[in-house]
Specification:
259 residues; alpha/beta; Rossmann fold; 7-stranded mixed β-sheet; 7 strands
Length: 259
């Protein structure tokens, strides 16, 4: 997926509370070096820089990095932004006292390569904090429906389940070979709109996944079918009868050497 499509700024605003949780749990101190993997438009990177850290944000989408860089400059923050990805982070070994990733590393095609690279840039006594969605719930169902619809149109097999970044046992197996321990905390985040219809419309106009899927779905004449499927998911899950609210659960994993 090309994250520079659409208007990720809209998505970033929704996810800001999760970035605040990750940065808070990281307990970032003044003058620490922070590497933000999959930084997007800079939610967590800018929060870390506000705490006095020296930050480098990494993301594959240049447009998003440009947005983040403008915000850092306007706010006078010590943050720079470079093109890269979780499995190829363009910084030297042991560059980060803290490595963070807010729903970024979870999209790495090769989780083992991503883990190895993030460990490479982590300082020996540093700490890594990663957030990952817990499968299930309406947002997860909607994403799966969109991806399955696109795969069906293209004659491809259904997408494989994502790597289980949310499971402690899986993360222990992933980071254990580097002598790093793992602990998890569960959190939740709400997504709101005046109505389910408006939420679907906003997502369709802004979210990179929806924008990327649109040509394929419209070309196959299945846009209305997909929209109705998404509305059905969100109407059934709506927690606010007078408007729209759904809740997604996620974990924040702390990865570091045992004390």
């Amino acid at each position: 997926m090309e994250w520079g499509q659409g208007r990720y700024e809209y998505v970033a605003a929704q996810l800001l509370p999760a970035a605040e949780v990750v940065v808070d749990r990281a307990a970032i101190r003044e003058d620490e070096r922070v590497v933000d993997v999959g930084c997007g438009t800079g939610n967590a990177a800018l929060l870390a820089a506000e705490r006095g850290a020296t930050v480098i944000g990494i993301d594959p989408a240049q447009r998003l990095l440009d947005v983040a860089a403008v915000q850092a400059s306007e706010r006078g923050l010590d943050a720079t932004f470079e093109v890269g990805e979780a499995a190829a982070i363009p910084v030297p070994d042991a560059s980060g006292d803290v490595v963070i990733s807010v729903f970024g590393a979870i999209f790495a095609p090769d989780p083992k390569a991503a883990a190895r690279e993030m460990v490479r840039v982590l300082a020996p006594e540093g700490r890594m904090l990663l957030s990952a969605w817990i499968p299930g719930g309406p947002i997860s169902e909607a994403v799966r429906l969109t991806r399955e619809t696109v795969a069906e149109i293209l004659g491809q097999p259904p997408p494989a389940p994502p790597f289980a970044w949310h499971e402690e046992s899986v993360l222990r197996e992933l980071f254990g070979p580097f002598d790093l321990g793992v602990s998890l905390e569960e959190h939740s985040i709400s997504f709101t709109a005046p109505s389910p219809e408006e939420f679907v419309e906003r997502e369709s106009e802004n979210h990179p996944l929806a924008v990327g899927a649109r040509p394929t779905v419209e070309g196959a004449g299945r846009a209305d079918e997909l929209r109705e499927g998404l509305l059905r998911i969100y109407r059934e899950a709506n927690e606010d009868p007078s408007a729209f609210r759904v809740t997604s659960r996620y974990v924040v994993a702390t990865v570091k050497r045992p004390a």
